[in-house]
Amino acid sequence: MQVNVKTIALSLTLAVATVAALASCGAAGADTDAAPPPPGAETTEWTIDAEFVAADGSISAASYAPIDPGSVSEPWKVCALFPHVKDVLWVSANYGNAVEAERLGIEYNLFEAGGYGNLSTQVSQTDDCIVQGFDALILGAISAEGNCSTIEKALEANIVVVDFINGTNCGESVTDNPLYTRVSVSYHETSELIGRYLAESSDGAPLVASFPGPDGAAFANDAVDGFATGIDGSAAEIEVERRGDTGLDVQLALIEDVLRAYPDVTDIFGVDIAAEAGVVALRNAGRSGEVGVYGYTIIPNLYQAIVDGDATAAVTDWTPFQGRMAISQAIKALEGQELGGRSVGPTPLVVSSENAASIEYERMFGPKDFAPVYSVRASR
Predict the structure, then answer these.
(1) Domain that holds residue 236
(2) Is residue 19 part of a domain?
(3) Cα(109)–Cα(182) distance, rounded to whole angstroms?
(4) Are both 255 and 334 inside the same structural domain?
(5) Which tens digit of pLDDT belongs to each residue from 154-212?
(6) At residue 301, what are phi and psi to the nearest 5 degrees?
(7) Nearest to 111 by CA among 88, 134, 103, 168
(8) Hey, how many other C-beta atoms are within 10 angstroms of the C-beta on 149?
(9) How far, in Å, CA of 163 to CA of 151, rounded?
(10) 28 compared with 186, residue with greater pLDDT
(11) Domain check: are 191 and 177 in the same one?
């Protein structure tokens, strides 16, 4: 595989107009008014260091080369299905989707299910996209197994499926289908990175409270396994694990209960929103600085907490770039172009007090004033 290794900095200062959120689960249909194109999106060049995973599981590193707009032959229709857009991770993913759709001149529609408890809503929304004749689905799956039958249905209808960010645990009828691909950063890898960082930077024998995310979500399961790998052989131990939806209130309640029940906990590990909640819980308890806080992903409030010294470290997965990759890979598949591997995602990086100030905010999160865009009209 030959990949262009020239590094081009992505400008993520594009302003995207906001469309009105819909009342029913925030979902959008194909008739939603399209947002005006982000200025310059159709000409913006970009690339990023990435990891490509082949069908045999081998991993190679190279710069990701997005599809050339000049090679796009049709105004392809892409349906994106997200668990929700109530936190910055999914809003950043939507930003990447939207600017890349504009750059390529294709149609884009976003449906969001309203939360991780709404698998049936996401399955219904996926069915709707299949019936409406979309050419590709970008699926941020709510359930590792619960989305698989609908993925199979889409593939049987000759629709390209990009398994996006969260991942699934579907069988070979899905994973061996040439219309199926993944765009994600391995949460096993990000959790292993942060686990190793915790083990190497902590004194004594850390007792860790783990808050990986919802039950049944593939990304949360991967995080648990990866963190265990990262601390393996060290003095660190997992004292307690609690699962829950990635809402701030849910995670805050879980963490406050654990801090009361397990006063000897020395460190909090979790998904980004759990780490943010950990900072709040420790502040409320008058224990800021006493307990380390580590995230296997990162959001702006957690990033600021690291800069301020209230959190220890987290891992960036360059979410806006994942959003751009998902659109690019979908259109490459529709155009019969080489994808570079079964799965691809940006190379993750540990963000700590040592390097946080030097990392451009918009490369991690997109513009601060961006709000979800539910529809982009094809310009071809």
Answers:
(1) 187-316
(2) no
(3) 19
(4) no
(5) 999 999 999 999 999 999 999 999 999 999 999 999 999 999 999 999 889 999 999 99
(6) -65, -35
(7) 134
(8) 12
(9) 9
(10) 186
(11) no
